[in-house]
């Protein structure tokens, strides 16, 4: 999978580190922006714990670049234009937004361990307390 700059991010980049991999519907929408800014504001604290962060959705590299620049996002955003990874993880599915059903990414956060296993998965993430829920025992 590539990031906003076209650099390939592979399992090797995740191995031997803890990683927050969060899936969100779309760049530059209110809730998605709030979520990205929240991760950015806590990035130093997370990195201090040895945790890296990547956001993922179906937007293009260009849209990700614009989103990062506009909101000073401090981590890479990965491009999943065909939703391959989201489908593999059952994150791309039928959802209802404002009463309308459509296929799309359901806001989901994964905490991945150094051995690439999913340590924690939070479906239908509530952005306001996402980190508290992620690190709750």
TrEMBL record:
GO biological process, one term: cell redox homeostasis
GO terms under cellular component: cytoplasm
Keyword match Repeat: no
One Gene Ontology MF term: thioredoxin peroxidase activity
Catalytic center residues: 32 (cysteine sulfenic acid (-soh) intermediate)
Keywords: Antioxidant, Disulfide bond, Oxidoreductase, Peroxidase, Redox-active center
Entry EC number(s): 1.11.1.24
Gene3D superfamilies the UniProt entry points to: Glutaredoxin
Catalyses which reaction(s): a hydroperoxide + [thioredoxin]-dithiol = an alcohol + [thioredoxin]-disulfide + H2O
Main enzyme class: oxidoreductase
Protein family per UniProt: Belongs to the peroxiredoxin family. BCP/PrxQ subfamily.
Subunit architecture: Monomer.
Its job: Thiol-specific peroxidase that catalyzes the reduction of hydrogen peroxide and organic hydroperoxides to water and alcohols, respectively. Plays a role in cell protection against oxidative stress by detoxifying peroxides and as sensor of hydrogen peroxide-mediated signaling events.
Protein name per the record: thioredoxin-dependent peroxiredoxin
Species, as recorded: Macrococcus brunensis
Upper classification of the organism: Bacteria, Bacillati, Bacillota, Bacilli, Bacillales
